[in-house]
Write a structure and sequence with these properties.
This protein is an all-alpha fold. The chain is built from 3 helices and no strands. Helix 2 packs antiparallel against helix 3.
Length: about 60
């Protein structure tokens, strides 16, 4: 069909900024640790599963760095 994916104007500069990438990586690591603590404390298996899914998303985001 000939469609192309284009980044908005400011995103390319933002993605090349080392300090922004370091901040984002720290945020993802802290979020993963927070979710792990919540999952360990949770008794409800359904909520535990939801937290596991969130942890998977955080891990996926970390792997992109």
């Amino acid at each position: 069909m000939g469609f192309e994916e284009k980044l908005p104007k400011g995103y390319q500069a933002l993605l090349q900024n080392k300090s922004f990438l370091a901040y984002t990586e720290r945020f993802c690591r802290s979020r993963l640790q927070e979710l792990q603590k919540l999952r360990e404390a949770e008794k409800n298996p359904y909520l535990k599963r939801a937290l596991s899914r969130e942890m998977g998303k955080a891990r996926e985001a970390l792997s992109s760095f």
